[in-house]
Design goal:
single chain, two-stranded parallel sheet, 32 strands, about 50% strand, globular
């Protein structure tokens, strides 16, 4: 056993000497579970902000609609249908304990839901007095600062490419809310390496909106930045979207329609004006217009004509090249969605037009042969969903004008009190194009894919839950690093044991097989199978009312031809949250080893309030972080985070302008939150 392994294991058992998460434990647990269904590089700040907002401004279950319930990301479509049906038949809920009597609502689901719902109703917007907008409003101001403590290569005095700004990360976020009917938000942010001000572009990132709800015939009006999600996401899903995970119901899209957007992600939103209008009792019209300037890599053609190679979504503007690409592409978009909603039946149609001021060009690579070419694209789709007995049936057909089609259909239901299942079929043609498609898929885009997904949850009693899914997929045309048609599969099995409300133990196995071109220098030109496997054991248990532990062991396996990599991650988290103290916090100590990036392991990491993300563990080392929250006064909170990674034997870390000399990488964050 290496010295680093011995030290790490010792630290894991000594972690109990330190001083809950920056979010409450219910929020932290929810985010970590949902994060399993997201891409590893997803910005989780949008998710953490959503749950914290709902905790401050709970949803009124007696006035709720299906879109609001979907936005909670807690209930399945069948559970949402049963709740709304119960209220229709029996009238308003008198007590939240009534949830226990609704079919399909188990204690785990109810406990997850309770922090974000209420039964009292706010005054309608038409009854507001002008003074109420100030005296009865809720305001939230957050200031955050962070930086990497070591100096990266990009910040040194280089003769070539270098970072033009400072290593400081800065964020300001302000939110205003009055009785859920009127809200406003503003976010300003600067990433490390970016100049805070940049000539004509001003602040590096500035986002905001004004959101008005329930105003006469308008269900919602948003001026500023917003997101759109319709149907199963084949044509339009610009916001948060889940994928395949241990919760097998996550493969159904949360078609939440129009939502305000004010997060730090700089690419997944629209900017302009949008509204939802009540045409009649059952018919809603969502209309939207957006004008944005996007980051893009342009290529100079003859006669000073620029064409578009790709749209950049990183939101980073640190070097001369990145600043040159910033807001270099104009995008105009407008469209409408018409939805018929009656009880548990929904039928909708969406059409929108997108125009760019530069031409897209198709690369010479084989997998780009059917890529989008031109300046203009019209997308349209028809989507449906309905509940029949204990089954939820859903689907969408989408078309990109002049090119291809995409289809998805599925059914989810409760077979018995112990068994629920889901079955989904998808077929996306290789020439289907959508800039904002984000439905169930194995690839990064909604095209060139066919597949069948099947999942099952088995609950023999209230303490045990077995979740299993399998996904068989094929790609009719070439893809990146795959020069011909290919196929593969993915499967997962997880068993959870919850002896009581506070303790939870789980085991998980996941396996994925795909084809890939052989590595350079390989004699055979045939596609090779790439296998990725992982085994995970989790334990979450309280020591007492103040201290909560979580331990995890995860083993990863990667194999391509004769090349095999085995890696592991072991960590222990400690959450400390006394009921009366001004200070709370959490920490982690982790030991990890993966021979290469191919066997890397991702794990959710808690952070300061409204921030969280995935930790990427690869190489050999120890990682630890500490989060603290101190209540300076009732309306003012101070947050602190320190994280460090130690790689023994390494002389440098990272590559390119991210390179750091030495074997340590550490960063800090400080944050102030003021509520008034």
């Amino acid at each position: 056993m290496s010295i680093i392994t011995k030290i790490s294991i010792g630290l894991l058992f000594l972690v109990g000497t330190v001083a809950h998460a920056q979010e409450s434990l219910p929020i932290q647990s929810l985010i970590e579970n949902l994060a399993e269904s997201l891409p590893e590089d997803y910005d989780l700040s949008e998710l953490t902000e959503r749950f914290n907002d709902y905790q401050k401004h709970p949803i009124d279950l007696n006035k709720v609609n299906s879109e609001q319930l979907k936005s909670l990301l807690i209930l399945s479509p069948v559970q949402i249908s049963k709740l709304l049906e119960h209220i229709r038949k029996n009238g308003k809920l008198l007590d939240l304990l009534e949830l226990q009597g609704i079919e399909g609502f188990d204690l785990t689901t109810i406990n997850r839901l309770l922090p974000f719902v209420r039964l009292s109703s706010p005054d309608p917007l038409s009854n507001i007095e002008p003074n109420d907008l100030i005296n009865k409003s809720k305001n939230d101001l957050v200031l955050r600062y962070g930086r990497l403590l070591q100096t990266q290569k990009g910040f040194r005095d280089l003769t070539g490419s270098r970072y033009l700004g400072t290593p400081d990360k800065l964020m300001l976020r302000y939110r205003y809310n009055y009785s859920d009917q009127l809200s406003a938000a503003l976010v300003a942010e600067k990433d490390a390496g970016e100049p805070f001000f940049n000539g004509k572009n001003g602040l590096d990132h500035l986002s905001g909106n004004i959101n008005i709800s329930d105003l006469k015939c308008f269900k919602k009006i948003i001026i500023g930045d917003y997101s759109l999600q319709f149907g199963q996401g084949l044509s339009m899903s610009s916001g948060f979207a889940l994928g395949k995970g241990a919760d097998v119901t996550s493969v159904t899209a949360k078609d939440m329609g129009l939502s305000p957007y004010a997060a730090s992600n700089e690419s997944s939103f629209f900017r302009g004006i949008a509204s939802i209008t009540n045409v009649n009792k059952y018919l809603d019209l969502t209309s939207f217009v957006s004008f944005r300037k996007l980051d893009a890599s342009l290529k100079l053609q003859e006669e000073k004509n620029y064409t578009l190679q790709n749209i950049n979504t990183s939101g980073l503007h640190r070097t001369v090249t990145e600043l040159k690409n910033k807001k270099s592409l104009e995008q105009q978009m407008y469209g409408a969605a018409l939805q018929y909603i009656k009880k548990d039946f929904r039928l909708g149609t969406l059409t929108y037009y997108t125009h760019y001021d530069r031409n897209f060009i198709t690369g010479e690579q084989r997998y780009n042969e059917f890529g989008f070419v031109g300046k203009n694209l019209v997308n349209s789709s028809i989507y449906y969903s309905f509940t029949w007995n204990n089954f939820f049936v859903f689907g969408e057909v989408a078309h990109s004008a002049g090119s291809g089609w995409a289809f998805i259909n599925g059914i989810m239901g409760t077979v018995s009190a112990q068994v629920s299942c889901v079955l989904v079929h998808r077929s996306y043609q290789k020439n289907y194009h959508s800039f904002y498609g984000n439905g169930l898929s194995e690839g990064s885009e909604i095209n060139n894919e066919k597949g069948w997904y099947a999942g099952l949850n088995y609950t023999p009693n209230k303490h045990w839950l077995l979740s299993v899914y399998g996904d068989r997929f094929s790609f009719p045309w070439a893809r990146y690093r795959i020069d011909t048609a290919s196929s593969g599969y993915e499967g997962l099995a997880q068993i959870c044991f919850t002896p009581d409300k506070k303790n939870r133990f789980s085991l998980r196995y996941k396996r994925e097989l795909k084809a890939q071109n052989p590595d350079a220098g390989t004699e055979s030109l045939d596609l090779q199978n790439v296998v990725k496997e992982s085994f995970r054991a989790d334990a979450n248990w309280p020591l007492n009312k103040k201290l909560n532990f979580q331990q995890r062991l995860e083993i990863s396996h990667y194999q391509k031809d004769a090349k095999k990599d085995w890696g592991y991650l072991i960590y222990s988290d400690l959450n400390y949250k006394p009921t009366s103290s001004k200070i709370s916090g959490n920490m982690r100590v982790a030991c990890f080893y993966t021979p290469s990036y191919n066997s890397r392991i991702y794990a959710y990491e808690d952070d300061v309030l409204y921030a969280s993300g995935f930790g990427i563990y690869y190489g050999q080392g120890i990682r630890s972080f500490l989060n603290l929250r101190y209540r300076l006064m009732p309306a003012l909170d101070f947050f602190f985070r320190y994280a460090i990674s130690f790689y023994p034997g390494q002389e440098r870390m990272g590559s390119g302008l991210e390179e750091i000399e030495g074997n340590r990488k550490s960063d800090i964050k400080v944050q102030l939150k003021y509520q008034f």
